[in-house]
Design brief:
about 130 residues, mainly beta, 7-stranded mixed sheet, 4-stranded antiparallel sheet, 11 strands
């Protein structure tokens, strides 16, 4: 079955950087669109970023645009989220998710489009 395992979370000061990774197995990674979501305690899960299969188009939430970069390495079955200029409000559990195979929609911010999820990695940004 599909397994997604996030890593790279931690504690960082405001203005700092982190790179999250998501290792995927049990799927033909190159045919899946991938996304990052986050959820803080007491809040709903929110979209962060997505990257499509094929052309690798990227999409970002307005709150992270210009600070976060999503990328993928299909040869290694890895998804990344480079996070720069972190803010305390970025504190959350971050989850990677897979949509596919060959997802042809354009609703990448909708968590219901993703059929597989990782267990999450915690990011804490101190002020």
């Amino acid at each position: 079955q599909v397994q997604l395992v996030e890593s790279g979370g931690g504690l960082v000061q405001a203005g700092g950087s982190l790179r999250l990774s998501c290792a995927a197995s049990g799927l033909t990674f190159s045919t899946y669109s991938m996304g990052w979501f986050r959820q803080a305690p007491g809040k709903e899960r929110e979209f962060v970023a997505a990257i499509t299969w094929g052309l690798r188009r990227t999409y970002y939430a307005d709150s992270v645009k210009g600070r976060f970069t999503i990328s993928r390495d299909n040869a290694k079955n890895l998804l990344y989220l480079e996070m720069n200029n972190l803010r305390p409000e970025d504190t959350s559990s971050y989850f990677c998710a897979a949509a596919g195979p060959l997802y042809r929609g354009n609703d990448y911010s909708n968590s219901q489009r993703y059929g597989s999820w990782g267990q999450g990695t915690q990011v804490t940004v101190s002020s």
